[in-house]
Amino acid sequence: MNKIEIIGLGAGDLEQLSFGIYKKLSHAKEAVYTRTLDLPAVKALQEEGVRFLSFDSIYEAESQFDNVYSSIVSLLLQKAAKQNVIYTVPGHPMLAEKTVQLLLQQQEVEVEIVGGHSYLDDLFTALQIDPIEGFQFIDGTSFERDQLNYRNHLIFCQVYDRFIASDVKLTLLEDLPADYPITIVEAAGSKDEAKKTISLEELDHAMDISNLTSIYIPPAPDNVLHHSFEQLRKVIRILRSPEGCPWDKEQTHETLREYAIEEVYELLDAIDQADDEGIVEELGDVLLQVMLHSQIGEDDGYFTVDDVIRSITNKMIHRHPHVFKDATVDTVDEVYKNWDELKQEEKGNVRKSILDGVAKQLPSLAKAYQLQKKAAKIGFDWENSVDIWAKLDEELNEFKEAVQKNENVEMEKEFGDILFVLANLSRYYKINPEVALNRTNAKFQSRFSYIEQQLEKRQIDIQHATLEEMDALWDKAKEGE
Q1: Best exposed site among 157, 371, 374, 387 by fewest CB in 10 Å?
Q2: Of 12-16, 31-35, 359-363, where does the model show the most confidence?
Q3: Could you tell me the pTM of the whole model?
Q4: C-alpha to C-alpha distance for 67 and 154, rounded to whole angstroms
Protein backbone atom coordinates (compact mmCIF):
# COMPACT_ATOMS: atom_id res chain seq x y z
CA MET A 1 0.00 0.00 0.00
CA ASN A 2 1.24 3.46 -0.88
CA LYS A 3 1.37 6.07 1.85
CA ILE A 4 1.27 9.82 2.39
CA GLU A 5 4.15 11.26 4.41
CA ILE A 6 3.23 14.58 6.01
CA ILE A 7 6.05 16.97 6.84
CA GLY A 8 5.79 20.25 8.74
CA LEU A 9 7.97 23.05 7.39
CA GLY A 10 7.67 25.41 10.34
CA ALA A 11 6.97 29.07 9.76
CA GLY A 12 10.54 30.20 9.21
CA ASP A 13 13.66 29.42 7.23
CA LEU A 14 15.47 26.17 6.42
CA GLU A 15 17.28 26.42 9.75
CA GLN A 16 14.07 25.26 11.44
CA LEU A 17 14.13 21.94 9.53
CA SER A 18 15.88 18.93 11.04
CA PHE A 19 18.70 17.44 8.95
CA GLY A 20 16.64 14.31 8.30
CA ILE A 21 13.66 16.25 6.92
CA TYR A 22 15.92 18.51 4.87
CA LYS A 23 17.65 15.47 3.38
CA LYS A 24 14.34 13.73 2.56
CA LEU A 25 12.99 16.79 0.76
CA SER A 26 16.17 17.74 -1.06
CA HIS A 27 16.57 14.16 -2.37
CA ALA A 28 12.92 13.65 -3.35
CA LYS A 29 12.69 12.18 -6.85
CA GLU A 30 9.03 13.02 -7.39
CA ALA A 31 7.38 16.41 -6.97
CA VAL A 32 6.56 17.31 -3.39
CA TYR A 33 2.98 18.41 -2.72
CA THR A 34 2.54 21.45 -0.51
CA ARG A 35 -0.53 23.17 0.82
CA THR A 36 0.92 26.54 -0.18
CA LEU A 37 4.06 27.89 -1.82
CA ASP A 38 3.95 31.01 0.32
CA LEU A 39 6.45 29.79 2.91
CA PRO A 40 10.12 30.79 3.40
CA ALA A 41 11.23 27.15 3.62
CA VAL A 42 9.46 26.25 0.36
CA LYS A 43 11.10 29.13 -1.50
CA ALA A 44 14.53 28.20 -0.15
CA LEU A 45 14.07 24.53 -1.17
CA GLN A 46 12.91 25.58 -4.63
CA GLU A 47 16.17 27.47 -5.05
CA GLU A 48 17.96 24.19 -4.27
CA GLY A 49 16.05 22.39 -6.99
CA VAL A 50 13.18 20.76 -5.09
CA ARG A 51 10.05 20.66 -7.25
CA PHE A 52 6.79 21.55 -5.48
CA LEU A 53 3.17 21.24 -6.58
CA SER A 54 0.88 23.46 -4.52
CA PHE A 55 -2.85 23.71 -3.88
CA ASP A 56 -2.91 27.51 -3.91
CA SER A 57 -5.24 27.50 -6.92
CA ILE A 58 -7.91 25.68 -4.90
CA TYR A 59 -8.00 28.56 -2.41
CA GLU A 60 -8.73 30.91 -5.29
CA ALA A 61 -11.41 28.66 -6.80
CA GLU A 62 -13.35 27.80 -3.62
CA SER A 63 -15.28 30.26 -1.46
CA GLN A 64 -15.54 28.02 1.62
CA PHE A 65 -12.49 26.76 3.52
CA ASP A 66 -14.16 23.41 4.24
CA ASN A 67 -14.41 22.85 0.49
CA VAL A 68 -10.75 23.80 0.07
CA TYR A 69 -9.60 21.24 2.64
CA SER A 70 -11.78 18.42 1.33
CA SER A 71 -10.62 19.11 -2.24
CA ILE A 72 -6.95 18.97 -1.22
CA VAL A 73 -7.47 15.68 0.61
CA SER A 74 -9.36 14.20 -2.33
CA LEU A 75 -6.52 15.05 -4.74
CA LEU A 76 -3.88 13.68 -2.38
CA LEU A 77 -5.76 10.39 -2.04
CA GLN A 78 -6.03 10.11 -5.83
CA LYS A 79 -2.25 10.56 -6.18
CA ALA A 80 -1.54 8.15 -3.30
CA ALA A 81 -3.56 5.45 -5.05
CA LYS A 82 -0.76 5.35 -7.66
CA GLN A 83 2.40 6.26 -5.73
CA ASN A 84 3.86 7.36 -2.42
CA VAL A 85 3.23 11.04 -1.72
CA ILE A 86 5.12 13.62 0.32
CA TYR A 87 2.83 16.41 1.51
CA THR A 88 4.19 19.48 3.31
CA VAL A 89 2.30 21.96 5.46
CA PRO A 90 3.25 25.11 7.36
CA GLY A 91 4.26 24.75 11.02
CA HIS A 92 3.74 21.32 12.58
CA PRO A 93 1.32 18.84 10.93
CA MET A 94 -0.60 18.34 14.19
CA LEU A 95 -1.11 22.03 14.86
CA ALA A 96 -4.14 23.70 13.25
CA GLU A 97 -3.97 21.66 10.05
CA LYS A 98 -7.44 20.63 8.91
CA THR A 99 -6.18 18.69 5.89
CA VAL A 100 -4.02 16.56 8.18
CA GLN A 101 -6.99 15.81 10.42
CA LEU A 102 -9.06 14.74 7.42
CA LEU A 103 -6.26 12.52 6.15
CA LEU A 104 -5.92 10.83 9.53
CA GLN A 105 -9.65 10.10 9.59
CA GLN A 106 -9.74 8.25 6.25
CA GLN A 107 -8.93 4.53 5.91
CA GLU A 108 -7.95 4.31 2.23
CA VAL A 109 -4.27 5.23 2.47
CA GLU A 110 -1.64 4.92 5.19
CA VAL A 111 -0.63 8.28 6.64
CA GLU A 112 2.68 8.96 8.43
CA ILE A 113 3.48 12.14 10.34
CA VAL A 114 7.20 12.70 9.76
CA GLY A 115 7.57 15.78 11.95
CA GLY A 116 8.05 19.50 11.80
CA HIS A 117 8.72 22.60 13.82
CA SER A 118 5.80 24.18 15.69
CA TYR A 119 5.87 27.94 15.62
CA LEU A 120 4.08 28.17 18.98
CA ASP A 121 7.39 28.22 20.84
CA ASP A 122 8.52 31.08 18.63
CA LEU A 123 5.22 32.89 19.22
CA PHE A 124 5.47 32.57 22.99
CA THR A 125 9.04 33.87 22.83
CA ALA A 126 8.13 36.75 20.52
CA LEU A 127 5.20 37.77 22.71
CA GLN A 128 7.01 36.97 25.98
CA ILE A 129 4.03 35.10 27.43
CA ASP A 130 3.83 31.90 29.48
CA PRO A 131 1.00 29.63 28.22
CA ILE A 132 0.64 28.08 31.67
CA GLU A 133 -1.26 31.25 32.62
CA GLY A 134 -4.05 30.11 30.30
CA PHE A 135 -3.88 29.90 26.52
CA GLN A 136 -6.22 29.36 23.55
CA PHE A 137 -5.08 28.67 20.01
CA ILE A 138 -7.89 29.47 17.59
CA ASP A 139 -8.44 28.86 13.89
CA GLY A 140 -9.43 32.25 12.47
CA THR A 141 -11.38 30.58 9.65
CA SER A 142 -13.56 28.45 11.92
CA PHE A 143 -14.56 29.48 15.43
CA GLU A 144 -17.59 30.59 17.43
CA ARG A 145 -17.77 33.55 19.77
CA ASP A 146 -18.86 31.40 22.71
CA GLN A 147 -15.62 29.39 22.43
CA LEU A 148 -13.49 32.36 23.46
CA ASN A 149 -12.25 32.70 27.02
CA TYR A 150 -11.05 36.27 27.32
CA ARG A 151 -9.22 35.56 30.59
CA ASN A 152 -6.74 33.49 28.57
CA HIS A 153 -4.01 34.53 26.17
CA LEU A 154 -5.71 34.19 22.77
CA ILE A 155 -3.78 33.54 19.56
CA PHE A 156 -5.57 33.38 16.20
CA CYS A 157 -3.88 31.44 13.41
CA GLN A 158 -5.00 30.87 9.80
CA VAL A 159 -5.57 34.60 9.36
CA TYR A 160 -4.71 34.46 5.66
CA ASP A 161 -6.22 37.71 4.42
CA ARG A 162 -8.10 40.87 5.31
CA PHE A 163 -11.49 39.18 5.00
CA ILE A 164 -10.63 36.68 7.74
CA ALA A 165 -9.04 39.47 9.79
CA SER A 166 -12.28 41.44 9.44
CA ASP A 167 -14.37 38.48 10.62
CA VAL A 168 -12.09 38.03 13.63
CA LYS A 169 -12.30 41.74 14.43
CA LEU A 170 -16.10 41.92 14.20
CA THR A 171 -16.47 38.92 16.51
CA LEU A 172 -14.03 40.34 19.07
CA LEU A 173 -15.80 43.71 19.01
CA GLU A 174 -18.86 41.96 20.44
CA ASP A 175 -16.92 41.63 23.70
CA LEU A 176 -13.95 43.99 23.64
CA PRO A 177 -13.74 47.79 23.20
CA ALA A 178 -12.61 49.19 19.86
CA ASP A 179 -9.40 50.60 21.37
CA TYR A 180 -8.39 47.29 23.00
CA PRO A 181 -4.66 46.68 22.28
CA ILE A 182 -3.79 43.60 20.21
CA THR A 183 -0.57 42.43 18.59
CA ILE A 184 -0.02 41.25 15.03
CA VAL A 185 2.88 38.80 14.71
CA GLU A 186 4.33 38.06 11.30
CA ALA A 187 6.64 35.11 10.46
CA ALA A 188 7.41 34.23 14.09
CA GLY A 189 10.81 32.57 14.49
CA SER A 190 12.18 33.60 11.11
CA LYS A 191 14.56 36.39 10.12
CA ASP A 192 11.50 38.27 8.84
CA GLU A 193 9.72 38.16 12.21
CA ALA A 194 7.79 41.37 12.92
CA LYS A 195 5.43 42.55 15.66
CA LYS A 196 3.05 45.46 15.76
CA THR A 197 0.65 46.45 18.54
CA ILE A 198 -2.47 48.26 17.36
CA SER A 199 -6.05 48.85 18.48
CA LEU A 200 -8.63 46.16 17.72
CA GLU A 201 -10.55 48.40 15.31
CA GLU A 202 -7.43 48.68 13.10
CA LEU A 203 -6.98 44.93 12.72
CA ASP A 204 -8.13 44.51 9.12
CA HIS A 205 -6.37 47.56 7.69
CA ALA A 206 -3.21 48.05 9.77
CA MET A 207 -0.67 46.07 7.75
CA ASP A 208 -0.24 43.36 5.14
CA ILE A 209 -1.66 40.01 6.23
CA SER A 210 -0.41 36.64 4.99
CA ASN A 211 -0.52 32.96 5.89
CA LEU A 212 2.34 33.66 8.36
CA THR A 213 0.22 36.13 10.33
CA SER A 214 -0.97 35.47 13.88
CA ILE A 215 -3.17 37.73 16.01
CA TYR A 216 -2.55 37.94 19.75
CA ILE A 217 -5.25 39.10 22.19
CA PRO A 218 -3.99 39.65 25.77
CA PRO A 219 -6.18 38.57 28.72
CA ALA A 220 -8.99 41.04 29.40
CA PRO A 221 -9.28 42.77 32.79
CA ASP A 222 -12.48 42.42 34.84
CA ASN A 223 -13.83 45.85 33.94
CA VAL A 224 -13.96 44.86 30.25
CA LEU A 225 -15.98 41.72 31.01
CA HIS A 226 -18.93 43.19 32.90
CA HIS A 227 -21.24 41.81 30.21
CA SER A 228 -20.11 38.21 30.78
CA PHE A 229 -21.95 35.62 32.86
CA GLU A 230 -18.85 34.59 34.79
CA GLN A 231 -18.17 38.18 35.83
CA LEU A 232 -21.76 38.53 37.09
CA ARG A 233 -21.38 35.29 39.02
CA LYS A 234 -18.14 36.57 40.55
CA VAL A 235 -19.79 39.85 41.63
CA ILE A 236 -22.71 38.04 43.31
CA ARG A 237 -20.30 35.65 45.06
CA ILE A 238 -18.33 38.63 46.42
CA LEU A 239 -21.50 40.38 47.60
CA ARG A 240 -22.47 37.25 49.58
CA SER A 241 -18.95 36.64 50.93
CA PRO A 242 -17.81 37.52 54.49
CA GLU A 243 -16.22 40.68 53.04
CA GLY A 244 -19.36 41.53 51.03
CA CYS A 245 -22.50 43.60 51.57
CA PRO A 246 -24.30 43.27 54.95
CA TRP A 247 -27.72 43.31 53.24
CA ASP A 248 -26.85 40.67 50.62
CA LYS A 249 -25.24 38.40 53.20
CA GLU A 250 -28.36 38.16 55.34
CA GLN A 251 -30.83 37.42 52.53
CA THR A 252 -32.59 34.05 52.30
CA HIS A 253 -34.90 32.44 49.76
CA GLU A 254 -37.82 33.57 51.93
CA THR A 255 -36.75 37.21 52.33
CA LEU A 256 -36.24 37.58 48.58
CA ARG A 257 -39.72 36.36 47.58
CA GLU A 258 -41.31 39.81 47.49
CA TYR A 259 -38.51 41.18 45.29
CA ALA A 260 -38.96 38.41 42.73
CA ILE A 261 -42.63 39.30 42.35
CA GLU A 262 -41.88 43.02 42.23
CA GLU A 263 -39.19 42.66 39.54
CA VAL A 264 -41.42 40.57 37.29
CA TYR A 265 -44.19 43.17 37.43
CA GLU A 266 -41.72 45.96 36.70
CA LEU A 267 -40.59 43.95 33.67
CA LEU A 268 -44.20 43.70 32.52
CA ASP A 269 -44.55 47.47 32.87
CA ALA A 270 -41.50 48.03 30.66
CA ILE A 271 -42.88 45.59 28.07
CA ASP A 272 -46.28 47.31 28.07
CA GLN A 273 -44.56 50.66 27.52
CA ALA A 274 -42.42 49.21 24.69
CA ASP A 275 -39.42 50.62 26.58
CA ASP A 276 -36.41 48.69 25.28
CA GLU A 277 -33.97 50.26 27.73
CA GLY A 278 -36.41 49.56 30.54
CA ILE A 279 -36.78 45.94 29.42
CA VAL A 280 -32.98 45.51 29.49
CA GLU A 281 -32.80 46.96 33.01
CA GLU A 282 -35.73 44.96 34.36
CA LEU A 283 -34.52 41.71 32.80
CA GLY A 284 -31.25 42.39 34.61
CA ASP A 285 -33.15 42.76 37.88
CA VAL A 286 -34.95 39.46 37.25
CA LEU A 287 -31.61 37.80 36.48
CA LEU A 288 -30.24 39.25 39.72
CA GLN A 289 -32.94 37.37 41.62
CA VAL A 290 -31.94 34.13 39.86
CA MET A 291 -28.28 34.71 40.71
CA LEU A 292 -28.94 35.60 44.36
CA HIS A 293 -31.10 32.51 44.93
CA SER A 294 -28.47 30.37 43.17
CA GLN A 295 -25.68 31.80 45.32
CA ILE A 296 -27.71 31.19 48.47
CA GLY A 297 -28.14 27.58 47.32
CA GLU A 298 -24.39 27.32 46.76
CA ASP A 299 -23.57 28.92 50.13
CA ASP A 300 -25.91 26.46 51.87
CA GLY A 301 -24.40 23.53 49.95
CA TYR A 302 -27.61 22.47 48.19
CA PHE A 303 -27.26 23.61 44.57
CA THR A 304 -25.43 26.10 42.33
CA VAL A 305 -26.34 28.18 39.30
CA ASP A 306 -24.78 25.38 37.22
CA ASP A 307 -27.55 23.08 38.47
CA VAL A 308 -30.13 25.71 37.56
CA ILE A 309 -28.74 26.06 34.03
CA ARG A 310 -28.36 22.29 33.59
CA SER A 311 -31.96 21.77 34.67
CA ILE A 312 -33.45 24.23 32.17
CA THR A 313 -31.12 23.11 29.36
CA ASN A 314 -32.08 19.46 29.82
CA LYS A 315 -35.74 20.42 30.05
CA MET A 316 -35.70 22.47 26.83
CA ILE A 317 -33.94 19.70 24.90
CA HIS A 318 -36.29 17.03 26.26
CA ARG A 319 -39.43 19.06 25.50
CA HIS A 320 -38.37 19.92 21.96
CA PRO A 321 -37.67 16.54 20.31
CA HIS A 322 -38.82 18.06 17.00
CA VAL A 323 -35.82 20.41 17.19
CA PHE A 324 -33.09 18.34 18.88
CA LYS A 325 -34.11 14.83 17.78
CA ASP A 326 -35.78 13.17 14.82
CA ALA A 327 -39.37 13.72 15.92
CA THR A 328 -41.53 15.89 13.67
CA VAL A 329 -44.53 18.13 14.33
CA ASP A 330 -46.65 20.01 11.84
CA THR A 331 -48.72 22.37 13.98
CA VAL A 332 -48.44 24.49 17.11
CA ASP A 333 -51.20 22.38 18.68
CA GLU A 334 -48.99 19.29 18.32
CA VAL A 335 -46.15 21.17 20.02
CA TYR A 336 -48.45 21.96 22.98
CA LYS A 337 -49.64 18.34 23.15
CA ASN A 338 -46.09 16.97 23.11
CA TRP A 339 -45.02 19.56 25.68
CA ASP A 340 -47.69 18.44 28.15
CA GLU A 341 -46.96 14.74 27.62
CA LEU A 342 -43.21 15.24 28.04
CA LYS A 343 -43.77 17.44 31.08
CA GLN A 344 -45.85 14.71 32.69
CA GLU A 345 -43.13 12.19 31.82
CA GLU A 346 -40.52 14.36 33.59
CA LYS A 347 -42.61 14.45 36.74
CA GLY A 348 -42.73 10.66 36.73
CA ASN A 349 -46.55 10.68 36.70
CA VAL A 350 -46.52 11.50 40.43
CA ARG A 351 -49.16 14.22 40.22
CA LYS A 352 -52.45 13.08 41.70
CA SER A 353 -54.62 15.72 40.05
CA ILE A 354 -54.76 17.28 36.61
CA LEU A 355 -54.72 20.62 38.44
CA ASP A 356 -51.46 19.91 40.29
CA GLY A 357 -48.65 22.22 39.26
CA VAL A 358 -50.55 25.51 39.37
CA ALA A 359 -48.47 27.76 41.62
CA LYS A 360 -50.11 28.47 44.98
CA GLN A 361 -48.71 32.01 45.09
CA LEU A 362 -50.22 33.10 41.75
CA PRO A 363 -52.56 36.11 41.88
CA SER A 364 -56.16 34.86 42.04
CA LEU A 365 -57.13 35.95 38.53
CA ALA A 366 -54.04 34.33 36.99
CA LYS A 367 -54.67 31.21 39.06
CA ALA A 368 -58.25 30.96 37.78
CA TYR A 369 -56.94 31.23 34.23
CA GLN A 370 -54.36 28.46 34.76
CA LEU A 371 -56.78 26.10 36.55
CA GLN A 372 -59.29 26.29 33.70
CA LYS A 373 -56.53 25.96 31.12
CA LYS A 374 -55.39 22.68 32.71
CA ALA A 375 -58.94 21.35 32.98
CA ALA A 376 -59.59 22.18 29.34
CA LYS A 377 -56.69 19.99 28.23
CA ILE A 378 -58.62 16.83 29.13
CA GLY A 379 -61.90 18.10 27.63
CA PHE A 380 -63.50 19.77 30.67
CA ASP A 381 -64.38 22.91 28.76
CA TRP A 382 -67.19 24.80 27.07
CA GLU A 383 -67.80 23.77 23.48
CA ASN A 384 -68.08 27.35 22.24
CA SER A 385 -68.04 30.95 23.43
CA VAL A 386 -71.85 31.22 23.37
CA ASP A 387 -72.05 28.90 26.39
CA ILE A 388 -69.47 30.98 28.27
CA TRP A 389 -71.40 34.19 27.60
CA ALA A 390 -74.58 32.49 28.81
CA LYS A 391 -72.78 31.39 31.98
CA LEU A 392 -71.59 34.96 32.54
CA ASP A 393 -75.19 36.24 32.29
CA GLU A 394 -76.27 33.57 34.78
CA GLU A 395 -73.57 34.57 37.28
CA LEU A 396 -74.39 38.27 36.89
CA ASN A 397 -78.04 37.60 37.67
CA GLU A 398 -77.12 35.55 40.73
CA PHE A 399 -74.88 38.37 41.94
CA LYS A 400 -77.71 40.90 41.46
CA GLU A 401 -80.02 38.70 43.51
CA ALA A 402 -77.47 38.57 46.33
CA VAL A 403 -77.13 42.37 46.15
CA GLN A 404 -80.90 42.82 46.39
CA LYS A 405 -80.96 40.54 49.45
CA ASN A 406 -77.93 42.38 50.88
CA GLU A 407 -76.23 39.06 51.67
CA ASN A 408 -72.55 39.96 51.93
CA VAL A 409 -71.16 36.41 51.94
CA GLU A 410 -73.27 35.43 48.92
CA MET A 411 -72.31 38.63 47.13
CA GLU A 412 -68.64 37.76 47.59
CA LYS A 413 -69.18 34.20 46.32
CA GLU A 414 -71.18 35.28 43.30
CA PHE A 415 -68.73 38.03 42.40
CA GLY A 416 -65.93 35.45 42.54
CA ASP A 417 -67.94 33.31 40.10
CA ILE A 418 -68.18 36.27 37.74
CA LEU A 419 -64.42 36.76 37.80
CA PHE A 420 -63.88 33.04 37.30
CA VAL A 421 -66.10 33.03 34.20
CA LEU A 422 -64.34 36.14 32.89
CA ALA A 423 -60.99 34.35 33.30
CA ASN A 424 -62.37 31.46 31.25
CA LEU A 425 -63.68 33.88 28.63
CA SER A 426 -60.26 35.49 28.35
CA ARG A 427 -58.72 32.04 27.87
CA TYR A 428 -61.14 31.30 25.04
CA TYR A 429 -60.09 34.49 23.24
CA LYS A 430 -56.39 33.85 24.04
CA ILE A 431 -56.09 36.88 26.31
CA ASN A 432 -54.13 36.66 29.54
CA PRO A 433 -56.41 38.28 32.15
CA GLU A 434 -53.52 39.48 34.33
CA VAL A 435 -51.86 41.20 31.39
CA ALA A 436 -55.18 42.69 30.24
CA LEU A 437 -56.07 44.02 33.71
CA ASN A 438 -52.54 45.34 34.22
CA ARG A 439 -52.87 47.23 30.93
CA THR A 440 -56.17 48.74 32.08
CA ASN A 441 -54.68 49.70 35.43
CA ALA A 442 -51.85 51.50 33.65
CA LYS A 443 -54.37 53.23 31.38
CA PHE A 444 -56.44 54.38 34.36
CA GLN A 445 -53.33 55.63 36.16
CA SER A 446 -52.21 57.59 33.07
CA ARG A 447 -55.60 59.24 32.56
CA PHE A 448 -56.06 60.08 36.21
CA SER A 449 -52.55 61.58 36.34
CA TYR A 450 -53.56 63.78 33.40
CA ILE A 451 -56.58 65.00 35.37
CA GLU A 452 -54.34 65.86 38.33
CA GLN A 453 -51.86 67.72 36.12
CA GLN A 454 -54.54 69.75 34.33
CA LEU A 455 -56.30 70.70 37.55
CA GLU A 456 -52.99 71.79 39.03
CA LYS A 457 -52.33 73.99 35.98
CA ARG A 458 -55.75 75.62 36.52
CA GLN A 459 -54.96 76.02 40.21
CA ILE A 460 -57.97 73.90 41.15
CA ASP A 461 -57.70 71.70 44.24
CA ILE A 462 -58.62 68.18 43.16
CA GLN A 463 -60.48 67.78 46.45
CA HIS A 464 -62.88 70.50 45.31
CA ALA A 465 -63.12 69.69 41.60
CA THR A 466 -66.54 68.65 40.33
CA LEU A 467 -67.24 65.30 38.73
CA GLU A 468 -68.17 67.10 35.51
CA GLU A 469 -64.73 68.81 35.41
CA MET A 470 -62.91 65.56 35.98
CA ASP A 471 -65.04 63.69 33.41
CA ALA A 472 -64.24 66.31 30.79
CA LEU A 473 -60.53 66.01 31.46
CA TRP A 474 -60.83 62.20 31.41
CA ASP A 475 -62.29 62.40 27.90
CA LYS A 476 -59.43 64.67 26.79
CA ALA A 477 -56.89 62.22 28.15
CA LYS A 478 -58.68 59.44 26.27
CA GLU A 479 -58.62 61.44 23.04
CA GLY A 480 -54.88 62.05 23.48
CA GLU A 481 -54.25 58.28 23.53
Answers
A1: 387
A2: 31-35
A3: 0.69
A4: 26
